[in-house]
Design brief:
alpha+beta, two-stranded antiparallel ribbon, single chain, 171 residues, 6 helices, TraG_N_Proteobacteria, TraG-like protein
């Protein structure tokens, strides 16, 4: 089973994080941590049972163990797709828990952003890129700033009483 994870940033960093997760869970250290967590959970549930004067709820411990076995037992392959650069990276032996959660959340986010982009985009957005309107505004701002050369130290607005010269047009 191959799970896709979409990212709008550094696919290399996400690949390193998933590789680290695969190394930690594959080395056996995760099982040791799970055993310690299970013992602490049993102690906490026992204290709650004593304080509430109720029997120990072993079904909570059972649900915890089943969820751990489902999420951190089997492994899967994850494909990381960078939506900006189009890079695809593959990571093997990732635990099902982090891979499933990352895949579901990124797929939902990616689908929502595609629908929003379609709904709110301008007609030339696909031809000129996502930030074409921002680039146009920046060019207009720069053109308006450079049109008048002022003797003031502030380039955007001259102080009162300073003379502005219009650039010569007879070049």
């Amino acid at each position: 089973m191959d799970l896709p994870i979409y990212t709008a940033g550094s696919a290399e960093f996400l690949e390193m994080m998933l590789n680290a997760s695969a190394m930690i869970t594959g080395s056996g250290h995760a099982e040791d941590l799970a055993k310690i967590g299970a013992i602490l959970g049993l102690v906490l549930i026992a204290f709650q049972a004593v304080l509430n004067n109720q029997p120990i709820a072993f079904q909570r411990v059972g649900v915890m163990l089943v969820l751990y076995m489902v999420f951190y037992g089997p492994t899967t392959t994850v494909t990381i797709e960078d939506t900006v650069s189009g890079q695809v990276r593959v990571v093997d032996n990732v635990s099902l828990g982090p891979a499933f959660v990352g895949s579901v959340l990124s797929t939902i986010s990616y689908d929502i952003s595609q629908v929003s982009e379609q709904a709110f985009s301008t007609p030339g957005m696909t031809q000129y890129g996502l930030f074409s309107s921002l680039n146009t505004l920046t060019r207009v701002r720069d053109a308006l700033r450079n049109r008048w050369r002022c003797s003031s130290s502030r380039p955007t607005r001259p102080a009162r009483g300073t003379a502005c010269r219009r650039p010569s047009t007879n070049t």
